[in-house]
């Protein structure tokens, strides 16, 4: 090797999978970097060695220190550009100092082993990442493949998906490209109860539920089941639209809907936060039946109904990015205090209130907790036919109070 580039070499399987030209590059290394398993494949090479573990800053510093005075070769599994170290090194050193020699990716080997095409697959990883991040991904796609690690194992992935109400056919492809290669095929329940080699790729297959015949946003009130319609115990469509806009949802938001009632806000929030989670919290027993029926009818599976009153029912839920409060049971100060300690950075709170007294109390509580807030008074009238004529019929006014924590001033 005559150049002074950092060579990142992808290895698929064992030493025998490395072609002669690539092996020559490895053999001329003066500093050989890679995982312990890959370094052991080349015991005869006398280069200085550095094992990659949870020490990426040390690896990058060593590469920078040795470039360009020594020949540096980095061994990686499969394709270094596919959830591999190439991204980190290219970012740290610049593309002009890097040469990448890819092997066959683990995803390619896995789909070849199960004889299924992968051009329509969604690829992801739970390697050193929050495992809950893949719930929305799996829920929204028919074919998903995951790289796992020693902590987020196939069994743990399966347990997480089962807890989220997801059912899939699973392949676990182990020790790909080696003499120990094996493919396990089964259900999530079977995978959850089994143990696997640390070197594996999961493939999850399943049919998505049929799409409901409903708009993405702005579902008509009459399509929801809700109690005592004469009292209007549902967040009306127009109020719902503005409230959801104020929540500032992303596709991966975690949402708390406190006093969920019919679940109309939860259901439309879940359609926006399609890769996130929505927790519909309701304490009134007479509302729970309709809430559960609406969630079963309209949800894509990312809504969890929590029976109980806030703030006690909030214990154990993941910290929220957005909180909607449609009912507080007279405990607004305690609820807001609990939310204040749990809300993620730049998170938002939106409340619907019917009286000036409750508005004043909630706004003062938010101010005391360090939130900026703004208010809307919403008066809506809907057209109604009177014989051959039309008049407007007013709905009860609603106050929409929205808040975001004040940014710290340095």
TrEMBL record:
Segments forming domain Tetrapyrrole methylase: 6-191
Protein name: Precorrin-6y C5,15-methyltransferase (Decarboxylating) subunit CbiE
UniProt keyword terms in alphabetical order: Cobalamin biosynthesis, Methyltransferase, S-adenosyl-L-methionine, Transferase
One matching Pfam family: TP_methylase
Organism: Candidatus Dehalogenimonas loeffleri
Pathway where it operates: Cofactor biosynthesis; adenosylcobalamin biosynthesis
Gene3D superfamilies tied to this protein: Cobalt-precorrin-4 Transmethylase, Domain 1 (3.40.1010.10), Methyltransferase, Cobalt-precorrin-4 Transmethylase, Domain 2 (3.30.950.10), Vaccinia Virus protein VP39 (3.40.50.150)
